Amino acid sequence: MTVVTSHMSGPTRSRAALPWVTTVSRLVLAAVLIIAGWGKIGAPVLSVEAVKAYQLLPESVATAVGYGLPILEIVVGILLVVGLLTRVAGIVSALLMLAFVIGIASAWARGLRIDCGCFGGGGQLAAGESPTYLIDILRDFGLFALGVIIAWFPPGRLALDSVLGLTPGRESDEYDDDPESDDELGEGKDD
Amino acid sequence: MGKEAREARERMKAQREAERERERKKRIATIATTVVVAAGAIGAGWWFAAQSSEPEQATTALAPVTRAADGTIVMAKPGVEKPVVDVYEDFQCPACKSLEETSAATLKNLAAEGRAKVVFHTVTIFGKETGVLHANSVRAAAAARCVPAGPAWVTFHDKLFEEQPAEGSEGFAIDDLIAWGEDAGVTDPDFAACVRSQQHAAAYLADSDKELAAAKLEHTPTVKLNGTELVNEPFNPSALRQAVLDAAK
């Protein structure tokens, strides 16, 4: 019988905390995606308008994106919350965020005065309002990073992928709770 | 090592293989189901979005169109005082153009059916610092004031949104405005001079500022039903119609 010591080496500890990092990333990214999708889905016409305001896509494509983006965000958000197809959902959300970063940066570079339309509304700004491009880009870049983490280290804890056995070769054993788990929770922040 | 032990090991190996194969099939089935459900949800949402944005067909006859003292245009059947639909819009605002494309027919129909009093408030939401946006907006709105209230005003109003200049480019040229007014059926001989001299520009801007302050407008278009702002309904014709019908109850 092996004796489990209470001292874990650094790398082991961070590896044990990693699934939780993925889980937190999933929840944060999912919350933003669902809020953003929900804000837009009530008025698809405005969503289309917000896409057109970027003046990047041909009209018909902009219309399709405007109609489809809100529901896509919500569906990907739900997949992230429950941890289903986690890697795919992570990749899709990372790509979405990358596209948003490029779109906003391009609008900024071209001197457009638009609201990013990220959470609904969008389009041209009224008098006295100024664009918040830098904040939008930093936020979306941070979210992009979360998407990369999720795609790299899926599915994290509390994921349906593990329950349903969708993580070949790594289910059960790797993420099984071990006697150290309480210890991890207390020390995870130190890493 | 004995033969029996080897056989036992091989049996176990075969069992594990079979087990792994079952797992694999189950995994594929689960993934496929999830992908189909997710894709179906996205498709349904997309279809619903496109469907809910489909405009109504405008019926032929408009309700009477009159101009109030404050410059607003009222479209209502005689005696219809409520529910009141206030539409605040800027001729240069792209989202207002979207509103027009989506729901103008619904508003016309509701007024023509005697189910609502529709009030158009033309405002200039773009401040002076926006340069050409502001100038376009004011030029068009001042010209609209030269158009007598009536079906011609509505036609002119629709035409302005149809011809809305692309963002940041100059448009609504005086000559075009005059031509569109005449096409809309304006016969007043003073019309061209009125547009050319921008006779109503100052009065219009004063009214616009008053409207912006009084209605506490944060964005255009703003649509209010009996004084309460409708957020998403204006961009969804059937929801807009339903909201107005519910308000009449």
UniProtKB/TrEMBL annotation, chain B:
In residue numbers, the region (Disordered) covers: 1-25
Q: Which residues form the signal peptide?
A: none
Transmembrane region(s): 28-49
* One Pfam family recorded for the sequence: Thioredoxin_4
GO molecular function annotation: oxidoreductase activity
Q: Which domain of life is it from?
A: Bacteria
Basic and acidic residues biased stretches? 1-22
UniProt keywords, alphabetically: Disulfide bond, Membrane, Oxidoreductase, Redox-active center, Signal, Transmembrane, Transmembrane helix
Q: Which residues form the Thioredoxin-like fold domain?
A: 83-244
* Family statement: Belongs to the thioredoxin family. DsbA subfamily.
* PANTHER family given in the database record: DISULFIDE BOND FORMATION PROTEIN D, GLUTATHIONE S-TRANSFERASE KAPPA
| Record protein name field | Thioredoxin-like fold domain-containing protein
Q: Which organism's genome codes for this protein?
A: Planobispora longispora
